[in-house]
Amino acid sequence: MQADLTVDVEMDYSASMSQFKIYRCPLSERKDALRCLHRGVSTDQQDALVATLEQLRRQDSTVLEGLFVAKDQREILAAAWVQRAEGNTAILWPPDFASPAAAELMQSLDGLLSEWGVPLAQMVIGKDAEVNLELLALAGFHKLVDLDYLSLENPKVDANWPKGVLFFEPHAANQASRLQNLLLQSYDGTLDCPQLNGLRDPADVIASYQAQGVYEGEHWYLVQLDRQDIGILILAKHDNGKVMELVYMGVVPSVRGRSLGEEILRHAIRCSARGRAERLVLAVDPQNAPAQTMYRRAGFAAWDRRTVYARISSKVASPDRSVS
């Protein structure tokens, strides 16, 4: 159910020891709430963030429907936001964990996420960021995985690459049935975030991939070996094409162990070079040793590590039609 952002929906805790109210943020208090939410950054960054979010709101009137504030009789004490995202997911922007209102805000977000019924909500933060695990748990968030962020600078085609055996068919999103079937198969036995298997409908997963960077169908590939579908490669542009992201690559279990992933990766590098991208970037589970080895061998280097905290709904779709 979509909320009217101008309506002040209150949860009054004045009967308890708390001397503040928790409510969904009205339009008149939005800028102050967002500054409060991001008070850790400089004032000019706060203003830029508010301006950006206001622009997003004009595109989607519901973008801030999950923004909650805690306010006493004089001012906003803390704010927290769950942002609905493509693919039936949500993103958590937590409150200041030191605030006396943090617990109640997290409980309010938990109620809203339950109301929405999203199977997956997440927060991705720097590895050195301080978090309060007990407060996150009040909304059902727990550590899911660390992710290594790797980059290949100035991707180039190597004349010494071996001749390929794969065929890359573009515009994979136009072949919905084939694409969804390959997604299901490629997630079977995956070493990247296996905890997420069975959570979402394949169509939702595809929608979330399409929201990564700039969607261009020519960079979505069905991968074939001997005229049989065996894998997927999805790329997306960022920063006006200066950065290419390897959003997803995977192969079906029956062809694993044959170094086909290396050929798919070479195709990603080739596409990046042809588009004159300055960097090719990706994220990988540190526990996925085969992928880590392949990427490092191709020249990728780590530039960051982040931690994903996730709220996974207990009501997941049936495993025969869902992927992460």
TrEMBL record:
<keyword id="KW-0012">Acyltransferase</keyword>
<dbReference type="GO" id="GO:0035447">
    <property type="term" value="F:mycothiol synthase activity"/>
</dbReference>
<dbReference type="InterPro" id="IPR016181">
    <property type="entry name" value="Acyl_CoA_acyltransferase"/>
</dbReference>
<protein>
    <submittedName>
        <fullName>Mycothiol acetyltransferase</fullName>
        <ecNumber>2.3.1.189</ecNumber>
    </submittedName>
</protein>
<dbReference type="Pfam" id="PF00583">
    <property type="entry name" value="Acetyltransf_1"/>
</dbReference>
<dbReference type="InterPro" id="IPR000182">
    <property type="entry name" value="GNAT_dom"/>
</dbReference>
<keyword id="KW-0808">Transferase</keyword>
<feature type="domain" description="N-acetyltransferase">
    <location>
        <begin position="166"/>
        <end position="322"/>
    </location>
</feature>
